[in-house]
Specification:
The chain is an alpha+beta fold. The chain contains 37 helices and twelve strands. Strand 6 and strand 7 form a beta hairpin. GO terms for molecular function: ATP binding; protein serine/threonine kinase activity.
Length: 863
C-alpha cells in the first residue's frame, strides 16, 4: 500500500519534467532502486515486529515465589509498525522517506532490531539488550525500540530503567496496549500497585481478550487484597487460554488467602500436573497442606521447593513453622535462622523464630525476636500474644498483661490470647479476672479437660464450690470413656479438696480413698500423699479438730502399706516348664500356675532382703498400662533367699523377632508402617513410665516383648518388660540389687559413660536407649557390635552416631537423630516422640491446645 502511494506521487510529476533521453533513463533507474530499497526496509520492519511479538508476545509472564517474572508466549500481537513515528520529514501517510544517503543507516537499525528480537526469542537477553541499545543510539525517538528494550530490562529485573523507556515510549506513542501492559507489569514488580492497576486497566479496555493482561490484573488485585476481583480476572484469563500453570497457581493463591483451602489445593494440584518443576507451586501447595493439617505432605512440598529454589527465605520460614508443628524444634530453629540470614528483619521470620525459642524454653531469646518483630511491624496480634506469653514465663506480669490485652483488642476472642490472659491473671492473683477469660476459653473449647479443671480450681478459690464440682464432673465424664487413669487422679484430688472446703468431710474422705486406690495402681503414693495432706489442710481450714482429724485420716491412708494390693503366690504352686532366658539380675522361666491353670513368666531374683524385693514387687504392682507387661503377683522363698515375680507370658522378645524376619542380608526387618507402629507403641509405654516417675534404665529390643495380634496380619502387641534396673526418679534408698548397673553398653547414653555411675542417670538417658532401639527396628542391626566397651565409649563421646539408611524418611531420621543428642536436655521427651509418631501414622488427632506444645491452630496466620 505504501509503495503504490509513493509510485503514484512520483508518476504524477512526470509531465512537468523536461529531461533528455539519457536523463530519463537515469531518473527511472533511481526511482526503481529507491522503491526496491524502501520495500526491503518495510518488509524488514514488519518481520521484526512479527518476530518480537512471537518472542515476547501473546505472552503470560511466569511469576516465581517472590513475584519476579520471566516470560512465556502471551502478549497479543502488536499492530504498530517500526517507522510509524513522524517528524518534519514525514510524508502525508506519516512515514519517513529514507533519503538515499541514509539507506545504509536505516537498514542497519532494522537489522539490529530483528537480530535483537531473535536473540530475545532464544533467551539471550543480554545479547538482545545490546542490539536494542545500539539501535537506540542510532534512532533514540523510536517507540518500538524503547518498549521492546524495556521488556528485556523488565525480564532482567532492571525495573527502574525499564520504566524510563516505557514512559518515553508512551509519550511517543500513547495508548499502546503493549506499552501499557508492560508498564503495568513493571509497576507491579516495584509494588506500585495503584499505578499498575491504572495501566493494566487501560490496556484491558483497549484489548479485553488478552490473557496476559487479565492475569497481571489478577496478580495486582491479589496483592491489593481485592480477592473477589482478582479471582474474576484470573478466571477470565483461564477461559481465554486454558491450562496455564501460572494462572492456576495464582488462582490457588487467591483462594488460599480467602481461606478456601480445599479449592486452592485442587488448583495447585492441577498446576503441578502441568508443570512439576515450578517451585512456587510447591511452596503454595505446602502452605495449603499445612493449613489442612497434612504436615507430612507440607514438609514434602517445602523440601521439593527448597531443591528447586535453594536458600529461599519464604520456603525456609514456612518449612520452619511446619517443622515446629511436627515437634522438630531444632530443625525449625535452623530453617528460621537461615531465613533470617537471607532476609534480615522480616517480621514473620522473627515472630515465628520467637515462638520456636519459646517452645524450647529460651524465653529471653524469644522475647528479643518477638520485640524486634513488633518494631518492624507493630500492631500484629500474633506477635503480641506470644510476646505476652514469653513475658509471663519470665515473670514479667505487667508487661504480659499489656501485650495480651492489646492482642485481644486487635484479634478478639482468640483462643491462645484468652488462655494466656487467664494464666497471667491467675499468676497475679486476679482470680476474678482470670475466671472471666477462662469462661470465654471454655465457650470456644467446651471439652478440654485441662481448661475445665483450671476453671474449677478458680471457682473453688472464689467460693463457688458447686460450680467447681460441676466442672470437675465434666472432666470426669470426658476422661472416663478414654480410661485415662493417670489424669483421673488430679481431678479427684481437686474434687476432694472442694468437698472438704464445703465441709463435706465424708465425701472428701471417699474421694481420698479413691485417690489412694488409684495411686496404688499408678505408683505415686509416697510423693502424692504428703501433697494431698498439705493441700487439704491449706485449702479449707475449718475447725481445728475437724481439719486435724481429716488431715490425719488422709495421712493415715497415704502412709498405710500397699502390700495388700500385691498378690502373694505360694511358690510351690508354680511348676517349672522351661527356661526363657536371663533378664536384668534374674533368670526368667516359663511356669504353670497350678491354681489358675495358667502359663506365666516367672522372674527369679536373688535377694537376701525380703524388704528390698518387696520394693520392686510393689513398684511393678503400681504400674498398669496396656503397653507394659502385666504384673500378676509375687512369691518369696525364705530358704533360697530368692524372690519370684510372676508376670504375664508373651510369645517372644523384639530382638528375636527382628532376627527371625531378617531373612535377607542388609534388608530391614519390617515394612516402614509396621516399624513406625512398633516405635510408637514403645514411646507410648515409656511416656507413661516417665510420667509415673519411673526410669527404665535398660531399654533395648531384647527387653521389649511382642505378640502377633492378628493371624495373617503383621500387627504386633508390644509391651515393655524387665524392670530389674528400673527405679523411681529421686528415690535414694534403692535396694542394692537395682543399682549395680545402668544398662547394656551398646544402649548407654554419653552422660552415663562420662559419670560412670547410676546416680546421674535421668530420663533423657532412656530416650538415648530408645533411639538405639529404633535403629534396631529400622535396620535390623545392633550398632557398634564386635568392639569393646572402651571402644564404644570412645566412639559415643567423640560424637560418632549410627548411620540410618538413606531410605529412612527425613522426619524419622530427624527424630531418631535427636534422641542421640550429646546433651540430655536437647533430646525430645517420650510424650513428644509419641505425638510426632501419631501424626506420622495419621492416627487420632492429639489435643494441641493443652500444655506447652504449640499446635498449628494456635500459630496459624497469613503473611
Amino acid at each position: 500500500m505504501y509503495n503504490s502511494t509513493i509510485t503514484q506521487d512520483l508518476l504524477g510529476k512526470l509531465p512537468q519534467i523536461q529531461l533528455s533521453d539519457k536523463s530519463w533513463g537515469i531518473y527511472f533507474i533511481t526511482i526503481g532502486i529507491s522503491l526496491i530499497l524502501f520495500k526491503v526496509i518495510m518488509n524488514a520492519s514488519q518481520d521484526l515486529e512479527w518476530s518480537f511479538n512471537q518472542a515476547s508476545g501473546n505472552a503470560v509472564f511466569v511469576e516465581n515465589a517472590r513475584g519476579e517474572t520471566s516470560s512465556e508466549t502471551g502478549h497479543e500481537q502488536e499492530t504498530d509498525v517500526v517507522y510509524a513515528e513522524t517528524d518534519e520529514n514525514s510524508n502525508a501517510n506519516g512515514y519517513k522517506e529514507a533519503p538515499e544517503e541514509e539507506a545504509d543507516v536505516v537498514g542497519d537499525v532494522a537489522s539490529l532490531k530483528k537480530n535483537g528480537a531473535e536473540k530475545y526469542e532464544q533467551g539471550d537477553y543480554g545479547g538482545a539488550l545490546a542490539d536494542f541499545n545500539t539501535a537506540y543510539t542510532i534512532e533514540p525517538q523510536c517507540a518500538t525500540t524503547l518498549k521492546y528494550r524495556a521488556e528485556i530490562k523488565r525480564i532482567l529485573g532492571q525495573y527502574k530503567e525499564a520504566l524510563e523507556d516505557l514512559n518515553l515510549a508512551d509519550k511517543l506513542q500513547p495508548n499502546n496496549v503493549f506499552t501499557l501492559s508492560t508498564r503495568g507489569a513493571v509497576y507491579k514488580e516495584l509494588k506500585d500497585y495503584e499505578n499498575a492497576l491504572e495501566d493494566l486497566s487501560k490496556a484491558n479496555l483497549l484489548d479485553s481478550k488478552n490473557s496476559f493482561i487479565k492475569t497481571q490484573l489478577g496478580v495486582v488485585r491479589r496483592s491489593m487484597r481485592h480477592f473477589e476481583e482478582a479471582l474474576k480476572d484470573l478466571n477470565e484469563a483461564n477461559a481465554l487460554r486454558p491450562n496455564q500453570a501460572f494462572v492456576l497457581a495464582q488462582q490457588g493463591t487467591v483462594k488460599r488467602e480467602m481461606g478456601k483451602f480445599v479449592d486452592a489445593l485442587r488448583d495447585f494440584d492441577a498446576a503441578h500436573q502441568l508443570d512439576s518443576s515450578d517451585g512456587f507451586v510447591y511452596q503454595q501447595r505446602g502452605v495449603v497442606r499445612r493449613e489442612l493439617g497434612d504436615l507430612v505432605g507440607a514438609l514434602q512440598d517445602f523440601n521439593q521447593a527448597d531443591k528447586i529454589i535453594p536458600k529461599d527465605s519464604y520456603t525456609l520460614r514456612r518449612r520452619g513453622v511446619t517443622r515446629r508443628e511436627v515437634l522438630d524444634y531444632q530443625g525449625s530453629l535452623e530453617d528460621l535462622n537461615l531465613a533470617n540470614t537471607l532476609e534480615p528483619y522480616n517480621d514473620f521470620t522473627l515472630s515465628e523464630r520467637g515462638v520456636t525459642k519459646k517452645v524450647l524454653r529460651d524465653f529471653q531469646g524469644a522475647l528479643q525476636d518477638l520485640t524486634m518483630a513488633n518494631h518492624i511491624k507493630p500492631d500484629q496480634a500474633f506477635t503480641l500474644k506470644h510476646r505476652g506469653s514469653a513475658h509471663r514465663e519470665l515473670g514479667n506480669i505487667d508487661e504480659a498483661l499489656q501485650d495480651l490485652s492489646y492482642a485481644d483488642t486487635l484479634e478478639p476472642d482468640d483462643f491462645f490470647t484468652m488462655l494466656e490472659l487467664g494464666k497471667t491473671k491467675t499468676q497475679s492473683h486476679d482470680h476474678e479476672g482470670a475466671l472471666i477469660h477462662y469462661n470465654r476459653v471454655v465457650e470456644m473449647e467446651p471439652t478440654d479437660p485441662r481448661i475445665l479443671r483450671q476453671r474449677g480450681c478458680l471457682k473453688r478459690m472464689l467460693g463457688d464450690y458447686s460450680g467447681a464440682l460441676e466442672d470437675f464432673k465434666k472432666v470426669d465424664e470426658i476422661q472416663r470413656p478414654k480410661s485415662i487413669h493417670n489424669n483421673a487422679v488430679p481431678i479427684i484430688m481437686e474434687r476432694c479438696f472442694t468437698k472438704y472446703a464445703m465441709k463435706d468431710v465424708a465425701g472428701a474422705l471417699e474421694d481420698a480413698m479413691v485417690v489412694r486406690n488409684l495411686w496404688g495402681v499408678n505408683g505415686q503414693s509416697s510423693v502424692k500423699g504428703e501433697k494431698l495432706k498439705l493441700a487439704t489442710t491449706q485449702s479449707a481450714p475449718g475447725p481445728s479438730e475437724s481439719a486435724s482429724s481429716m488431715s490425719q485420716k488422709l495421712c493415715d491412708i497415704e502412709k498405710s502399706t500397699s502390700c495388700h494390693h500385691i498378690l502373694w503366690i505360694d511358690h510351690s504352686k508354680l511348676l517349672f516348664s522351661k527356661s526363657l532366658g536371663r533378664g536384668s539380675f534374674g533368670y526368667v522361666h516359663r511356669c504353670k500356675w497350678v491354681d489358675k491353670n495358667q502359663d506365666v513368666a516367672v522372674k527369679y531374683i536373688s535377694s537376701h532382703h525380703k524388704d528390698a524385693f518387696e520394693y520392686e514387687a510393689r513398684m511393678l504392682a503400681n504400674i498398669r498400662h496396656p503397653r507394659v507387661v502385666r504384673f500378676i503377683g509375687c512369691s518369696y522363698d525364705e530358704e533360697e533367699k530368692q524372690g519370684l515375680l510372676v508376670m504375664e507370658l508373651m510369645h517372644q522378645n523384639l530382638r528375636s523377632l527382628i532376627d527371625m524376619k531378617r531373612r535377607v542380608e542388609n534388608s530391614p526387618p519390617f515394612d516402614l508402617p509396621v516399624a513406625v507402629d512398633i516405635m510408637d507403641k514403645i514411646a507410648e509405654a515409656m511416656a507413661y513410665l516417665h510420667d509415673q516417675g519411673v526410669l527404665h534404665r535398660d531399654l533395648k529390643s531384647s527387653n521389649i516383648l511382642v505378640n502377633q495380634s492378628v493371624d495373617g496380619k503383621e500387627d504386633y502387641v508390644v509391651k515393655i518388660a524387665d524392670f530389674g534396673l528400673a527405679k523411681l526418679q529421686g528415690e535414694n534408698n534403692m535396694p542394692y540389687f537395682m543399682t549395680v548397673d545402668v544398662g547394656a553398653t551398646l544402649w548407654r547414653a554419653p552422660e552415663v559413660f562420662r559419670n560412670d555411675g547410676c546416680h546421674k542417670y535421668s530420663f533423657p538417658a532412656d530416650v538415648w536407649s530408645y533411639g538405639i532401639t529404633c535403629y534396631e527396628i529400622l535396620t535390623g542391626e545392633v550398632p557398634f557390635e564386635g568392639i569393646t566397651c572402651a571402644q564404644v565409649r570412645q566412639k559415643i563421646l567423640s560424637g560418632l552416631r549410627p548411620e540410618l539408611p538413606a531410605s529412612c524418611p527425613s522426619i524419622l531420621k530427624s527424630l531418631v537423630t535427636k534422641c542421640w543428642s550429646l546433651m540430655p536436655y536437647d533430646r525430645p521427651t517420650f510424650a513428644n516422640i509419641h505425638k510426632t509418631l501419631k501424626l506420622y501414622l495419621g492416627r487420632d488427632s492429639i489435643d494441641r491446645k493443652a500444655g506447652d506444645v504449640i499446635g498449628p491452630h494456635e500459630l496459624r496466620r497469613l503473611c
